[in-house]
Amino acid sequence: MHTLRYYEDQGLLRPDRDVGGRRTYRPDDLRRLRFVRQMRRSGMSMQALRRYVALSDAGPATVPERQQMMLDHAARVAADMQDLAEALATTRHKIRTYDGHPEP
Amino acid sequence: MHTLRYYEDQGLLRPDRDVGGRRTYRPDDLRRLRFVRQMRRSGMSMQALRRYVALSDAGPATVPERQQMMLDHAARVAADMQDLAEALATTRHKIRTYDGHPEP
DNA sequence: GCTTGACCTCGAGCGCGCTCGAGCTCCCAG
DNA sequence: CTGGGAGCTCGAGCGCGCTCGAGGTCAAGC
User: Fold this and answer.
1) Which residues does chain A have within 8 Å of residue B88's beta carbon, measured at their own beta carbons?
2) pTM (2 decimals)?
3) Lower Cβ count inside 10 Å, N or C end of chain B?
4) How far is the CA of B68 from the C1' of C9 (A)?
């Protein structure tokens, strides 16, 4: 709940309000939220996400920049996956060798 | 440099000192450092890393716990890779469709 | 002997992304 | 009509992992 409000503060979401001022998350909001979460999980910064969402809200003229952002992000994610893969190999090596004591 | 000292503070490294009190990183230290960096990059917390290194320094009796830690970490890393893979798919989808404007 | 510059210690500060709590408001069940 | 519980706002606070700077020390080159 607090996080949802925080995201809204940050301009990432803009749920409607009901008569009593309470937020109502429509399917679109939920989709956007899922996207935001996914980008966050994959290491996109709030700053970048704010920019991206702002561009999205600004209309089709911003497509090229958004596309560039996605390209950049894809590259970073791919690199991160590489890192993870290597770490996984190391980790599994340690597991396999029952951890060769002296050095970690 | 500052980070190396920080890691040392945290008990992750213990380089020798020369006569003048300056740190000298031996091959073992460098190997440990590389390991630490790899674990950090793959999302292991400083806390966990401190524990792991302490166990390593405590001798072979701690192998089972270290092994368990590596198993846990491997699982988390695998899950993270899954997340990244999904995010990459989403991202590439956005790139491919030239970003279907309205919703981000 | 003297300068110079790298490295030392220690404590404070920072950027990020939430997370929390106090105090208020509003709807709705009974 | 009333009481209670969920949601609201706003500002402050937190945990993590560094990152920085001031001020001191020491070895090496001139």
Assistant:
1) 42, 74, 77-78, 81
2) 0.90
3) N
4) 37
